[in-house]
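Sanity check record (used in CI):
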Amino acid sequence: MTTTPARPRAAGRPGATSHAAIEQAAFGLFAERGFAGTTLDDIAAAVGVGRRTLFRYYRSKNDIPWGQFDRTLDDFRRILDATPAGLPLWEAVHRGVVRFNEFPGDARPGHRERMELILGTPELQAHSALRYAEWRAVIAEHVADRLGCAPTDLLPTTVGHVSLALALAAYDAWMRDPSRSLAGLVDEAMRGLRAHLCC
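Expected output for Mycofactocin biosynthesis transcriptional regulator MftR:
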């Protein structure tokens, strides 16, 4: 796969872009050159903007594969908050994690492409650990709110860690067999949460 060099911009006001345009250009370059072999300058040139413009959208190259992750976490909080109060806590978390992992099939870059990069790129592993911690914290906050304790208490923290482990196990199965439904695999994996949280 090749990319078309961006035409030079006239001097003056910096060009505008979007998260989607940056991600599509970046993923094209990642596929062609590898993640490590792609620089922010390469991405900026492919989009047709300056490097400084990229920083208005993403703090680093490592953030691009994660998309608008902060907004995604806000959506996750809303999903959990919308679960009926009468549901057992394990089921509320279960439903929330499954719903969070339902993605449109026409997304570009596709969710599978995004996760293959995140899960399979050594240079992203340290950054991914930070993102996973933020994801776990959303669950811990919800559990703590339901139980009237602190998010840093042992049980909310445990539920966050267990939920992440189960979700990642589902992704591992999906990477091996893309014909299976990701949401179905997450649902199957999350059923194990009942053994850890039955209140």
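Confidence is low (pLDDT under 50) at residues 1-14. If this sentence no longer matches the regenerated tokens, the check is flagged for review.
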